[in-house]
TrEMBL record:
Keyword Thylakoid: no
Keyword field contains Kinase: no
Cellular localisation: Cell membrane
Higher taxonomy: Bacteria, Bacillati, Actinomycetota, Actinomycetes, Kitasatosporales
Topology in membrane: Peripheral membrane protein
Pfam families: ABC_tran
One annotated GO molecular function: ATP binding
InterPro entries: AAA+_ATPase, ABC_transporter-like_ATP-bd, ABC_transporter_ATP-binding, P-loop_NTPase
Name by which UniProt lists this protein: ABC transporter ATP-binding protein
Species name: Streptantibioticus parmotrematis
Annotated ABC transporter domain residues: 19-247
Alphabetical UniProt keywords: Antibiotic resistance, ATP-binding, Nucleotide-binding, Transport
Domain of life: Bacteria
Similarity field: Belongs to the ABC transporter superfamily.
């Protein structure tokens, strides 16, 4: 009877940050893959790394995963400085799931996992394989050859492979790339399940909705790190807060209606829709501004139809930053 191996996920999280990156740069000859990246990720966090094609996301993951040596800068991964002498121990503490799961099509799911468990020199292989397959809901497909699986299921086997070593930190490179929405949703649920079990996840993605739904914080990379923060904070940092007010008919004296209201900094006419009149107010605090604006509009003699605080998506933040780079390059 195989005894369960020590499971890092059941232990208290190690102290200190999971990943610390300081001024990290990777060049391939004259081409800079990423430059001067500084960030840190806490244990238990799901961190999203967003960026357009060629932004340097995969190269960052491969560098932090000890597969590539950085050109300059420093990093600590799972408590160990990123240095060739520590590569073996870092690899024992983390797992990297590359964009393509890299499985042997003729081998069954369990045989594939057994092969990799052997390659990683893991103990208690049978119980690890079973636990990993259970984590990705694939126990019933253990004996199926990988070639018979759909792309979504193969991706799940890739995730099971990454989980074999009970990693403290899991790097997922584009885990839902090429998956249909249903299969992508399954992977999202699995990632959410891993987060609940305390696994630290560093995830690269093109999918902004994915980052918004799954990640505690995101970094936007376009060779250099353009910004980093919680999705909500990024939206607030990049966009002025507004309140859109629509009335049935134009206000006769909007200047006096919107003057001196708490939380309101200014106003302009918006794009009128049909019969309605729209005003866009710049505000500092929606909770303060909205009731005051509602009262003022009604006192000003107009029928108030709607009152909507601005909701910018992470996509708008992303496009704004990446487009700024495109415009800067064109100058
Ligand atoms: N082994 C390599 N040799 C030379 N250049 C490379 C190598 N690997 C990556 N690059 C270059 O580094 C840059 C960053 O590539 P990387 O694959 O990290 O970007 P990415 O953000 O992951 O892109 P994608 O979303 O398309 O996968 C690109 O210009 C790429 O061509």
């Amino acid at each position: 009877m195989e005894r369960e191996s020590a499971n890092t996920r059941d232990q208290a999280p190690p102290s200190g940050p999971a990943i610390v990156v300081e001024g990290l740069t990777k060049r391939f000859g004259g081409r800079t893959a990423f430059a001067d990246v500084t960030l840190s990720v806490e244990y238990g966090e799901v961190f999203g790394f967003l960026g357009p094609n060629g932004a340097g996301k995969s190269t960052t993951v491969r560098t932090l995963g000890t597969l590539l040596a950085p050109t300059s800068g420093s990093a600590t991964v799972a408590g160990l400085p990123l240095h060739p002498a520590n590569s073996g121990e870092i690899r024992r503490r983390i797992a990297v799931m590359p964009e393509s799961p890299g499985l042997y099509p003729r081998l069954s799911v369990a045989e594939n996992l057994d092969f990799f468990a052997g390659l990683y020199e893991l103990d208690h292989r049978r119980s690890r394989i079973e636990r990993s397959l259970r984590a990705v809901n694939l126990l019933d497909r253990a004996d199926d050859p990988c070639r018979s699986l759909s792309k979504g299921l193969r991706q799940r086997v890739g995730l099971a492979r990454a989980l074999l070593s009970d990693p403290r930190i899991l790097f997922l490179d584009e885990p839902t790339s090429g998956l249909d929405p249903l299969a992508a949703h399954d992977v999202h649920e699995l990632i959410d399940g891993l987060r609940k079990r305390g696994v630290t996840i560093f995830l690269t993605t093109h999918r902004l909705a994915e980052a918004e739904a799954l990640c505690d914080r995101v970094g936007i990379l376009n060779t250099t790190l353009r910004t980093i923060g919680r999705p909500d904070d990024l939206r607030e940092r990049l966009f002025a807060k507004t309140l859109e007010v629509s009335t049935r008919a134009p206000l006769t004296e909007p200047d006096s209606v919107f003057a001196d209201l708490p939380g309101v900094d200014g106003w302009r006419r918006g794009d009128d829709a049909g019969e309605h009149t729209t005003y866009v107010l710049t505000i500092t605090d929606a909770d303060l501004a909205a009731p005051a604006v509602a009262r003022a509009v009604v006192t000003g003699g107009a029928d108030l139809l709607t009152l909507n605080p601005s909701r910018h998506s992470l996509q708008e933040v992303y496009l704004q930053l990446v487009n700024e780079d495109v415009e800067a390059q064109a100058r």
